[in-house]
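Before drawing any conclusions, I needed to go through one protein's amino acid sequence and its C-alpha cells, quoted below without any editing.
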Amino acid sequence: MINKICKLPLVLEPQPEGGYTITCPLIPNLITEVDSVDEISTNVSDALEALIEGYQDLGQPLPEILRPQVVDYPIWAETLIPVQIAA
C-alpha cells in the first residue's frame, strides 16, 4: 500500500438539512457528505480509498492526480478550520 498526500480542489455544497455534499472537479466520481467541516478530511480520504479500490477492481488506470509521485518540495495547502467566535 502506498501512502500519498493528495492536493485536491473540493467543492462543498451546503445542504438544506445541514451539512455539505463534497465533490472534486478533478475526480468526477468522488462524492461524499459531511455534517461539519471537522469531518472533511476523514470522509474525503475514505471516499478516495473506496474510489481507488474501485478503479483497481475494474482494471482501470487511476486519474493522473491520484497516481504516485515524489513530492520533495513545500506544499501549499488551504484548509478549513472551524473557529468559534463569541458574539
